[in-house]
Amino acid sequence: MTRRVNIKDVAQRAGVSISTVSRVLNETDYPVKPETRAKVLEATKELGFKPNDLARGLLSSRTRIIGLIIPDISNPYYPELSLGVESTASEHGYSVVFCNTGRDAERLEQYVDVLLQKRADGIILAGGGTQTKQVSQVLSDFDLAVALIGRHNLPFPSVQIDNRTAAREATSHLLELGHRRVAFISGPLNLTSVQDRLAGYQEAMVEHGIEHDSRLIREGDFGVQSGYSAAMALLKGQPRPTAIFAANDRMATSVISAAIDLGLRVPEDLSVVGFDNTVLASQVRPSLTTVSVPAYEMGSAAMKLLIDTLSGKKCPQVVWLSTELVIRQSTGPPSEGDQSEVHTIEKKGER
Asked: Who's near 351: CB < 8 A, 6+ residues apart?
């Protein structure tokens, strides 16, 4: 068998000491002349030397491993976000370990423990929520970088969108089309992102003079079946809503399925709006009006936050990214005679 090239071989080829090779390959702060660095890198390339990641980690106290913890890999939003993290990590010489919790708090704690044991340099927590409270102290006690995607009650820098404003804009779109009975299907209400989307929906209803009706709000779990069940319950009620805003695209496409199964036309009998603008939104028919969330960019921005933190740079506490309402085929004005009677809030100075 051919002997594996080692760091001593690289030192001999470059005509430098082993310690100099180590300093160059581990990117230490020790000053190395540019021409010497170039010799080492050239020798490494010529010999096909690939440093052992674990050995490099032991020398530099860095493993160049990042843990990405996501709540639901089956949701099309998270693979896109993960690609953003992985692409930026790879550009900077980091490897990513993907951890899917299934929104299970116990599994979240287990993954954090595993990543700490593996000496990960940092962790990215994706998906806004309150279920991360129990790991806050654990993360704070260890010397590793942490970045968040979404709104959390944790003392680490984060990448966020304004869920509240985005939901208010989506609901206002339906109200401005003439709908008055607009229903909302949420995700799990213990999640901060869902709480913000619900608040945005409610604010839009109040702004347009629509009195609160709790019967128009149903809690889902971001899954296909929950969206379908919630839509069925809403559409079989009397008077039925003429529009439904769902807190993610998977539930919104299920709303369309429920409407079709009940013999309703979209958007003629029912307008539907989703959230995320995943690949589902443009492929379903009718195509789905939805809030576009820059998932890839959010993942990339979180990884950049982590890299800056590891480099000792001062990071902003929150990096805000913009959303956009993408209007497609699933929304339109309500049919004539299909505007159910609703109670409106009497505004000051109006009758």
From this structure: none
Per-residue pLDDT tens digits for 267-318: 999 999 999 999 999 999 999 999 999 999 999 999 999 999 998 899 999 9
DSSP state of 123: E
Q: How many whole angstroms separate alpha carbon 319 and alpha carbon 89? A: 18
Closest CA relative to residue 155, chosen from 136, 172, 176, 131: 136
Confidence at residue 348, expressed as pLDDT on a 0 to 100 scale:
38
Which of 4-13, 116-125, 253-262, 305-314 has the least mean pLDDT? 4-13
- Cα gap 299→313, rounded to integer Å: 19
Residue with tokens 């379908």: 228
68-82, 301-315, 332-346, range with the lowest pLDDT? 332-346
* One-character DSSP codes across 132-166: TGGGHHHHHHSS-EEEEES--SSSS-EEE--HHHH
- Measuring CA to CA, which residue among 299, 318, 305 is closest to residue 68? 299
What is the DSSP code string of 163-229?
HHHHHHHHHHHHHHTT---EEEEES-TTSHHHHHHHHHHHHHHHHTTBPP-GGGEEE--SSHHHHHH
The two beta strands, 318-320 and 95-100, are unpaired
Select from 55, 81, 85 the least CA-distant residue to 67.
85
Which position has the token pair 């968040």?
Answer: 148
At residue 28, the pLDDT reads 65
Hey, is 110 helix, strand or coil?
Answer: helix
Instruction: Say whether pLDDT at 122 is over 70.
Output: yes
